[in-house]
Amino acid sequence: MKIKRVAVWVTVALLAAVAVGIVVKQINKEPAPEFVLTYAENQSDGYPTSMGAKFFAEQVEERTHGRIKILVYTSAQLGREADVITQMRYGGVDFARVSLSQLAEVEPSLNVLQMPYLYNDSAHMWAVLDGEIGDDFLRSVEKIDLYGLSWYDAGSRNFYNSVRPIRRLEDLEGMKIRVQQSDLMVDMVECLGATAVPLSYEEVYSALELGTIDGAENNWPSYEDTDHYRVASYFCEDEHTRVPEMQLCSIHTWNLLSDEDKKIIERCAIESAEYERKVWSERVEKSRETAIKNGVKVTSLDKNEIKRFREKVQPIYEKYCSDYMDILEKIIAEM
Ligand code: GCU
Fold this sequence. Notes:
Layout: H1 2-28, E1 35-40, H2 48-63, E2 68-73, H3 81-89, E3 95-99, H4 100-103, H5 122-129, H6 132-140, E4 146-152, E5 157-161, H7 169-172, E6 176-179, H8 183-191, E7 195-198, H9 204-210, E8 215-218, H10 220-225, E9 234-241, E10 245-250, H11 251-254, H12 259-293, E11 297-299, H13 303-312, H14 314-321, H15 325-333
Helix pairs in contact: 2-12
């Protein structure tokens, strides 16, 4: 009898403990997020723009107390840049960071911000992007159903190839050079006497390896991160363009958010851009060092050659900027 009573009490105590456990678990359980959103990035995980994206996602989650969760997909898992832009315009992808060359294919006024030899240096570009002109362009993408959040750094772009060092305009002549899928970039390379081959970023390594192209053009971190330096070891620091990058939200997603959430997201986007710019400058040096250590031969252009390159690309200013002369003048005045 006594044993039976003890057994009953033990059972009751166990059940009570289980019940308390369930309640505690329920209380501690994070509420399910209100929004689970996607973020597309075509660079690899440890690349500065991917680090910026993750920083952004973490900050948004923290400041909305888990109500907004952003899943960052790197290495073009959500598609190539051009396809991601299309998807965002229809609400299929929520956030992304994209190169302006690609975005300008849909909103051509953006070309004015990435013309060859436009900026004197990085400080000049940031004076433009961080000022009124940059803000107006962030707003300009609303007409293509995107919401511009912030500007990311992508440094300057340079020619590299597997054939010969470039020191003069003539060295580029006849080379097959990969460009982004951008009319402006095709015209720029053709003006310089080379043959432009538009390809997506993901296709460049094998095209270099197979020899279907002789070279390409990009910044130091992209050249190093994608291993292009292993198959194209002549790098010319000609800095022909500075192509900024934009962090974006699909307008369809943006319109679902409350004013308070919009403010948080904008703040986090700006802070993530500040973070990316810092990481960027460190990475440029590291990538340059890695490439040189692995046998990359670096050349540059003397003043006279830079002048010749500049003169050659003048016709594309007329073609791409004649409707935006006022903005172009303002950009030049920021010098
Ligand atoms: C840079 C840029 C990418 C872009 C690439 C390209 O690396 O960050 O977004 O896709 O240039 O050359 O296509």
